Amino acid sequence: MREIQYREAIREAIVEEMDRDSKVFLIGEDIGVYGGAFKAYKGLLDKYGPDRVINTPISETAIIGAGIGAALTGYRPIAEIMFIDFAALAMDQIANQAAKIHFMSGGRLNVPLVIRTQGGVGRGLATQHSQSLEAWFYHIPGLKVVMPATPYDVKGLLKTAIRDNSPVMFIEHKMIYPVRGAVPEEEYTIPFGKADIKRKGEDITIFAYSNMVLKSLEAAEELEREGISCEVVDPRTLVPLDIDKVINSVKKTGRLIIVSEACRRGSVASDISARVTERVFEHLKGPVKIVAGLDTPIPYNSTLEQASIPCKSDIIKAAKELL
Amino acid sequence: MAGLSNKIMIEMLKELIEIRRFEEKAVRLYKAGEIRGYLHPCIGQEAVPVGACQAIGKKDYVISNHRGHGHCIARGADMAKMMAELFGKSTGYCKGRGGSMHIVDMGLKILGGNGIVGGGIPISVGAGLSCKMEGKGNVVACFFGDGATNNGVFHESLNMAAIFKLPVIYICENNMYAISMRSTDSVACKDVGKRSCAYGIAGYIIDGSDPVEVYNAVKKAVGHARDGRGPSLIEAKTYRFYGHHPNDPAEYRGKEEVEYYISEKDPVANFKGRLFEEKIITEKEIERIESGVDKKIKGAVTFASESPEPELDKFLEEIEQI
After folding, report:
1. Residue A62 to residue B152: CA distance in whole angstroms
2. For residue A297, what is the DSSP state?
């Protein structure tokens, strides 16, 4: 199968959906001539014109509001927040408006809005351009949260997000954009709420999402050479969450490591740990291990930056401690 | 009167009375404990929704705010379903989930009230974009108070609406107070309408106690928007006769000021007097309208109180699916 980059897979998903449905349009900062901060929209302005590739001022609140208003009135906008850190500027529109409108209208209104954004550490972008803030959105009922780790997943899930009638936080990872992976030529979508076993194993379940899937796979590879067999479960969507697939894996292995780049306090990882422990405590052969980011703002210096998030050896260490 | 037929002016009077009586009834029910949570009556401000909704068409969108009953009634919303929503009943506009601040009616193109001051202003940008993309000449009427114009969302949204020339009519109901803070203390340039200059858009400062003056300004702005010439900002100077909500005695306002507005600027009494003086309506007709409105509101209250509560099982089942 052909291999393409994560950012190319995003562009393909968007092109296919924009060609399929004239109600789909793009709105965000520097998405026109510039092609988006990570070049995922390269060439789209030429292809679709400024009416469907709407370049905006630096106005995150109005970008999301524009997305919500257009979604309420028959369109399927993809609103871009350049860095997830900037979502803080639009939080009322995301958390109090987009997330709530369907519910508080008694189900009479839908907000088919995709909020595309990206987060994570890795390019020395320092404190305000490197955060992993998925827990903010995971916490708000009414939002779906998608965090794809591979080109295949990002394409299939983005197409599903565009067709979904709820607001979707589509959170990419800045380090994955250039990563290549197998993506079929023919059309496909990936349903929400279906975890993917990225690697089969018997001894330990590793639950990881976004860039930590890639690090967990590297760790699992190395552990395999030492005779430790790890099963890597990637939920792909945090809301809805395919907890059953995680539970089934833990029932088999009896051990669970949750890997997350986000800082640990109040994290998705903590919640997954609680949910699994509650359901299959009797199957656990040891404590659930959380390998997460440190509770610190992300530093600029590369040594400090890398020390603030999990690396391959942290995952390997946790695995060995469990056995 | 500015091309408005007698029939339409009588209709406007009826709407003014409907809003006034609905709000008065809601306040009484609130104080009696029948309605819970927050309730923000627009008593004293009725002329703005009535004049504005008369000036827009059926296919145009309305974006309301926390003090939004007037917008809904002027748009023709069903007062029984509104009252049922205030009662938290399953027959309410939002099935009892939204309450007073979140009434939605897509048939009437009411995109909802809002519990966040200014929360609807950015949404108007999207509704405006959608009208522009559709190209059918529809517009958006977005209502908010003076308080909302001091929030950053106002700037981002008006700027964006202006650069994209979106068909949005921004209608500021300046009732002079954001809860307790006077707009003369909170708005640096004093008149909200002057803020239009910053966006290079048309601005109007009008007497919001006169539904015809409101109608004329909004009509002009609507024409401008339908012609593809972009948004306008209308500041309608108005006054809320009572507190921010029924439990607010509004002690931050001087007695003389309140008395002045109630005696001189009552939109309902003034418009009634005017139609009577100009022999557009007789006293008997006014009485007939009033008793009709009272009957309708009584029916709305009966409907609301007799309606079933939302089913808990159904609610739990629905959230389970998310």
Report:
1. 10
2. P
pLDDT given at position B321:
65
Looking at residue A7, its pLDDT comes to 97
Integer Cα distance of B15 and B73 in angstroms = 7
Chain A neighbors of B163, CB-CB under 8 A? 57
What pLDDT score does B317 carry? 86
Mean pLDDT of B67-72: 98
**Alpha-carbon dihedral sign for residues B286, B288, B291, B295:** negative
Which CATH number, 3.30.1780.10, 3.40.50.970, 1.20.810.10, 3.40.50.1370, labels domain B6-320? 3.40.50.970
Residue whose C-alpha is closest to residue B124's, from A55, A50, A73: A73
- CA dist., res. B210 & res. B213, Å (int): 5
Taking one residue from A and the other from B, the number of pairs with CB-CB distance under 8 angstroms is 131
Which ipTM was obtained for this model? 0.95
For the whole prediction, is pTM greater than 0.80? yes
Task: Give residue ranges of B with CB < 8 Å to any A CB.
Answer: 61, 63, 92-98, 102, 104, 106, 111-112, 114-116, 119, 121-131, 133-134, 140, 152-153, 156-157, 159-160, 163-164, 319, 322
Is the domain A196-322 a CATH 3.40.50.920 member? yes
Structure confidence by residue, pLDDT tens digits, B295-318: 999 999 999 999 999 999 988 988
Cβ–Cβ gap A73/B115 under 8 Å: no
Q: Tell me which of A17, A29, A80, A129 is the catalytic residue.
A: A129
Interchain contact, B126 vs A101, CB within 8 Å? no
Q: Among this protein's residues, is A12 annotated catalytic?
A: no
> Closest to A106 (Cβ–Cβ): which among B63, B93, B160?
B93
**Segments of chain A scoring below 70 in pLDDT:** none
* Interface test mutation site (partner A, options B129, B159, B311, B314, max chain A beta carbons within 10 A): B129
Contact A109 B111 (CB under 8 A): yes
> CA torsion angle for B215, B58, B9, B169 (degrees, to 10)?
-10
Domain ranges across chain A:
3-182, 196-322
- Is A129 an active-site residue? yes
